[in-house]
Amino acid sequence: MPRITIQDFVRKKKDSRKITMLTAYDYPFGQIVDEAGIDCILVGDSLGMVVQGLENTLPVTMDEMIYHTRLVVRSARNALVIGDMPFMSYQASVEESVRNAGRFLKEAGAAAVKLEGGSEVADRIRAMSRSDIPVMAHIGLTPQSIHRMGGYKVQGRTEEEARRLMDEAHIAEDAGAFSLLMEAIPMDLAGRITEELAIPTIGIGAGPHCDGQVLVLHDVLGLFERFVPKFAKRYVNLREEALRAIVEFREEVEKGSFPSDRESFS
Ligand code: KIV
Questions:
Q1: How confident is the model at residue 2, as a pLDDT?
Q2: What integer pLDDT is reported at residue 111 of this predicted model?
Q3: How confident is the model at residue 1 (pLDDT cuts 50, 70, 90)?
Q4: Could you say which DSSP state residue 117 is in?
Q5: pLDDT, tens digit (0-9, with 9 covering 90-100), for 22-48
Q6: Span 62-89, average pLDDT
Q7: Residue 130 Cα, ligand 1 centroid: separation in angstroms?
Q8: What is the model's pLDDT at position 201?
Q9: pLDDT (0 to 100) of residue 171
């Protein structure tokens, strides 16, 4: 199977075929996601919460993102890999944002970057796109704005907010974004944005009318206990499985039944 490209994203939208996307942060899980035939792997800054055990995504650094993106790029044979720009890697200036975005392609081997925001980062999206760095924009609930938003809340519920999000979506597209991620917004609004835009939309908590869907891998696999957002679906409880296996190992060592002759050399 050839590697998925951003052109395939656009083709899939035209052909009304859904785009699939999951996060991954390391080699073994990147391999599994890739082997499962998922179109796109996002190395999300959500790694701050699900891998590093942080309260939110704000402390995640560029160097950490580059490291994890490299691991995932090494694992993926077919999926398009997108690196997520962490907080303060693109906010300070256009020039710094382009340099940091470039690091994802140059040092980590990603094919594109994602950043949060619409109108306020339009100049960044434009500058990156002009430098041949494909950009996925991210609107709606943007976790890096947690302090301004006052928590992880559904966005776009009032007429005014919905109109603003529609404008943001158009601004991101006009600035050159190749795709738009929409998080935690009402499904009808997400449907309208999807209809109006030529670029593909990817939803997380944005209902079924988006061109594609993304979830955080640790939610899908039941590896993140702190909270499960309403929009996430847990397909398996790997934490429980892992705990059971590790407890069994401990008990066998304590009892002396591991290692047995089968695991020993004569
Ligand atoms: O960091 C992340 O994992 C995200 C999610 C929206 C998928 O941005």
A1: 77
A2: 98
A3: confident
A4: B
A5: 999 999 999 999 999 999 999 999 999
A6: 98
A7: 24
A8: 98
A9: 98
Q: Which atom of ligand 1 is nearest to the CA of 214?
A: 7
Domains of the chain by residue range? 6-235, 238-266
Pair 83, 36: CB distance under 8 Å: no
Coil, strand or helix at 192: helix
Does 204 contact ligand 1 (Cβ within 6 A)? yes
CATH number for region 6-235: 3.20.20.60
**Distance (Å) of CA 221 to CA 33, 89, 195, 236, 242:** 11, 29, 31, 5, 11
Position 53 scores a pLDDT of 97
* Ramachandran region, residue 155 (left: φ > 0; alpha: ψ -120 to 50; beta: rest): beta
- Measure the CA–CA gap between 80 and 182, rounded to whole angstroms: 19
HEC string for 39-89: CEEEECCCHHHHCCCCCCCCCCCHHHHHHHHHHHHHHCCCCEEEEECCCCC
Of the residues 116, 160, 183, 263, only one is catalytic, namely 183
Nearest protein CA to atom 1 of ligand 1, as residue: 44
3-state helix, strand, coil in the chain (%, to 5): 45, 15, 40
**pLDDT digit string (tens) for 90-122?**
999 999 999 999 999 999 999 999 999 999 999
Q: Does 116 contact ligand 1 (Cβ within 6 A)?
A: no
Going from the C-alpha of 207 to that of each of 50, 185, 216, the distances in angstroms are: 23, 8, 16
Residue nearest to ligand 1 atom 3, measured at CA: 44
Q: Whose CA is nearest to atom 2 of ligand 1?
A: 44
Q: How far apart are CA 128 and CA 48, in angstroms?
A: 25
- Averaged pLDDT score across all residues of the chain: 97
Q: Is 95 a catalytic residue?
A: no
